Amino acid sequence: MPEPATREGVTPSDPERAAALELVHLLRDAALKLELAIAEFARTTGLHSTDVRALVSLLDAERAGVEATPTWLAQRLGMTSQATTAVIHRLEGAGHVQRLGSRTDGRSARLQVSDSAVELGWQFFGPLLDRMIAATQALDKQQQAGARAYLEAVTEALG
Which pTM does this prediction carry? Predict the structure, then answer.
């Protein structure tokens, strides 16, 4: 008779899977806490959570040197072009995003987060980011490399 699994698909005789699942739970807890912080930022600034996701995506694109177009943003957010247009209009209206001419295609626009929106984000998330950076810096180089490899693998597994 096979050994019964827990509700999470782990059997008592599979300690490696149990240890891996514990890491997944820790990651999920961290993600939930970050999601709560994002929701609080959205609430206090009058933004939709999708608006905040759009801003984060645009900032990520800027850091990566990617030209963020409305089409790119729609794909990144998994939304229709019409829904993305509504997000962009809300963000433009609030002064958080600017449409600028594309550097590569004169017919399209690129999106850029405004300096005032970046400042607003730093005011809210700065202390949280400082704590997260300090926690990361407390790890030695090997631990940081392991954490990076794990997070990259999990990100890949999520699609």
Answer: 0.81
